[in-house]
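Project standup — Tuesday

K.O.: blocked on the structure for the chain from last sprint. Re-posting the sequence here as requested.
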Amino acid sequence: DGSWGVDDKAKSIFDRDSSHSVTSKLCGEHANCDLGIAVGGFSQGSLIVGLASEYDDRVSAALLYGSGNLPGYLEFTLAGIRDMQCMNTVKLAKQRRRYFSGDNDRLFGGDYDGTRTQLAGECNLPSF
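H.V.: unblocked you, prediction finished:
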């Protein structure tokens, strides 16, 4: 379906209701996750951690490197069957997310102007 299994990967890592998820194994005995969980990822990893708050409401901040929006592709396949346009509808407030993208990212934008445009689209901001 073109989603690369991003939603399934996010769920397997961050599902608070699963005793097999990474956060379930770390939180409690090894860390007090009630204080918040900060996540970060690069490329596909940024798409995965961008969905973390969908599965664990303790996720309080996200840092996404090399992330992007491919209009007509990722906007409807990023989360598989979920109807969302990249990061526009995830539970984590956009003020609690930070994005970094290279000015010549070959996949997301291609050049400086294209990268800025796609990043604005992913962040649900007007083009700048």
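K.O.: great, moving the ticket to review. The two ends are 31 Å apart (CA to CA). Residues 71 and 118 are 8 Å apart (CA to CA).
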